[in-house]
Amino acid sequence: MVALLKRIGCAIGRHAPSRRAVEYEGHLKIGPCRFCGQALEKGGDGRWVSRKGSKRAPRDETTKHKD
Asked: Is residue 46 part of a domain?
């Protein structure tokens, strides 16, 4: 139920970053949304916003969990 509410938040632009996948790109923090995969960056005001020109964060071997 909570995950459904979070997905609704994604639909209105209120994303939550996947903390394990956050990386630095220069002075920016970037990472995917943990619910929908949208590429995000941390803005100057401390809020996570969608990256311009990017629809989804790429999934690669570094973001997958290893067993």
From this structure: yes
- In total, how many domains does the chain have? 1
State which residues form the domain around 7.
Answer: 2-50
Identify whether the C-beta of residue 55 lies closer than 8 Å to the C-beta of residue 36. no
Q: What is the largest CA-CA distance in the chain?
A: 37
* pLDDT(1) > 80: no
Neighbours of 52 (CB within 10 A): 7
pTM score over 0.85: no
Task: Give the model confidence (pLDDT) of 29-65 as tens digits.
Answer: 999 999 889 999 998 888 888 888 665 545 554 444 4
